[in-house]
Design brief:
Length: about 400
């Protein structure tokens, strides 16, 4: 009787197997048990790995105050801009995380639109640094695109799709991660219309680029060449959904203060407006509107894709000094670290900092100008690093710096 028993799964007879386990209405052999265990174990491991990857991809939402506190470590001043960006980023990623949840409540089913950000401010005020710091906090893919290199499709220059190619590369070609990344478009003001009126001929690096950017900004599926460059029919494309990509654009918008000023004072006719003579130009950007941007040369459709508009104040002497010494990655801290790696301590006096700041203000490059003057001061010391006594503090004072700048 036992010899006639067989496995109900594989059909092996009792004499062909090691043991046979009996059930209510059937039997299973040791081979099938091992096979079943192997399948279940592999499936469980695959699910565990998948869940682990999904957990890594999940963006941890930071509250606006947490975001601003982090930005304060890297960016001095610009409190209004940091507050606006913190709220915008918080709402944007909150929207992504909760967008897939099914809710029966009518209010919960409301679709929240994406809020791209437009930063306006002079060069060196911290536009790019703000975007980089946000990316560092959230640990998401980030890329910087220069709008001046973009042209309308078919012309010499880069297509707008090259922006997404860079984002894809920064995400190591992980499409899911790239679709939740941040793109910073620098020099957005350089693609303004060359005239206030629509151009009769093609404006391939101005209005043409603005039109091409619309499809990327609004949230659609874009076919992107993986290695960049021009598209061709036989090239393999990677589809990217831009619906959840946060776009931050920055520009100096040189001359827009005059447009704002003219709008504010346009009703002062027939009398001399003394307030206009005594106007405080640094406050003009606070009053910027979509109308001013349109008059500057941005098309209404592009302005509409950037519902959040904020400005960065010009840097004064006090702010520049704080930038030199206070942030987590302050320039003076960086140079001290570089010398410390060679077991050399340096001391930079306040008078030296004032000289650097005065020269930077004259140069008009904002915080970017600080490094060029610091480099001029420290380059000779670094070149002759082996000659510096490591047991003493290297003191850099006013006389040394003045002599160095006079020799240049």
């Amino acid at each position: 009787m036992e010899d006639s028993l067989k496995c109900n799964f594989c059909g092996r007879k009792r004499n062909e197997i090691t043991f046979l386990i009996s059930g209510v209405n059937g039997h299973i052999c040791n081979f099938c048990i091992e096979k079943t265990y192997s399948i279940i174990h592999r499936r469980f491991s695959a699910e565990k790995e998948k869940n682990h990857v999904e957990e890594k991809k999940t963006i941890e939402i930071k509250k606006p105050k947490e975001i601003k506190k982090f930005l304060d470590k890297y960016v001095i001043g610009q409190n209004e801009a940091k507050k606006v960006i913190s709220v915008a980023v918080y709402n944007h990623y909150k929207r992504i995380i909760y967008s897939n949840k099914e809710e029966n409540n009518e209010v919960e089913n409301v679709e929240i639109e994406k809020s791209n950000i437009l930063l306006i401010g002079n060069t060196g005020t911290g536009k790019t640094l703000l975007a980089k710091s946000i990316s560092k906090l959230l640990k998401i893919p980030f890329t910087i695109a220069d709008a001046t290199a973009l042209t309308e499709a078919g012309y010499v220059g880069e297509d707008v799709e090259s922006i997404l190619t860079r984002l894809l590369q920064s995400a190591n070609y992980d499409v899911d991660s790239a679709e939740k990344g941040i793109v910073f478009i620098d020099e957005i003001d350089k693609i303004s219309r060359k005239k206030n009126n629509p151009s009769i001929t093609r404006d391939v690096s101005g209005e043409g680029v603005q039109q091409a950017l619309l499809k990327i900004l609004e949230g659609s599926i874009i076919n992107v060449p993986p290695q960049g460059g021009r598209k061709h029919p036989d090239q393999k494309m990677i589809p990217i959904n831009t619906e959840n990509i946060l776009f931050i654009a920055g520009g100096t918008f040189d001359g827009i203060e005059n447009i704002i000023s003219d709008r504010i004072h346009q009703f002062s006719i027939g009398f001399i407006n003394h307030d206009k003579k005594n106007k405080n130009e640094k406050n003009f950007l606070k009053n910027i509107t979509a109308h001013d941007l349109r008059k500057f040369g941005l098309i209404p459709e592009l302005i509409g894709r950037f519902p959040i508009i904020t400005h960065l104040n010009s840097l004064d002497k006090i702010m520049l000094k704080k930038i030199l010494i206070e942030p987590k990655n302050a320039l003076i801290k960086q140079y001290k670290k570089l010398f410390d790696l060679d077991k050399i301590s340096i001391n930079v006096t306040d008078e030296v900092l004032d000289i650097i700041i005065d020269k930077t203000l004259k140069l008009g490059l904002g915080a970017r100008g600080l490094r060029s003057f610091c480099e001029k001061i420290f380059v000779d010391y670094m070149f002759n690093i082996e000659e510096i006594n490591k047991n003493q503090i290297l003191n850099i004072d006013k006389e040394i710096v003045i002599k160095k700048f006079n020799s240049l």
